[in-house]
Amino acid sequence: GAGVSQTPSNKVTEKGKYVELRCDPISGHTALYWYRQSLGQGPEFLIYFQGTGAADDSGLPNDRFFAVRPEGSVSTLKIQRTERGDSAVYLCASSSGIGELFFGEGSRLTVL
Amino acid sequence: GIQVEQSPPDLILQEGANSTLRCNFSDSVNNLQWFHQNPWGQLINLFYIPSGTKQNGRLSATTVATERYSLLYISSSQTTDSGVYFCAVEEAQGGSEKLVFGKGTKLTVNP
Q1: For the domain B4-110, what is the CATH code?
Q2: Could you read off the pLDDT of B63-81 as tens digits, one per residue?
Q3: Chain A window 52-81: which residues touch B at a Cβ cutoff of 8 Å?
């Protein structure tokens, strides 16, 4: 596609539920990144993929968070047993590998 | 890990004024980008500028990698320039291609 696409744009869930957030990168981009942004803060790195493999997952806060990119294109960020503190905007970005990242519009997650 | 500091944290301008935003970083970088986050939350690429100077319309940026800082210049500001400006860097020795963001400069341009 023309840009990075993220779905859903908004997700409201209850504490303890499971959530999946999807990212469709720019066509041909090999690198894909997930970030999380809380109100008034800069984006914080979660994980990045080079192709199908997670090249760096050091930003995942705990084992409730997991991400996959099985065919090297679309990625899904999965959050188990959601907590109120998980409420944030989850941003996805992709890159051709040259260095410049392009971000999607984000998925706003609210955990009640 | 690398530290990224942006200044000032907040800036209020009258339409037509010029401004300079600063980004300091604590270590060598492979990549530096400036982004504008609009009021709807979209992060828009402004410059990919690990070194040197670039210009795009009323905006320009300079990175002096040896002195570990970058500057973003906005001339003849417009109300549509309002939002948060982020600097983000990729640490050269970090072994990862992740970008580390500063806390941003919140710019308000009044008519």
Answers
A1: 2.60.40.10
A2: 999 999 999 999 999 999 9
A3: 55-56, 58-59
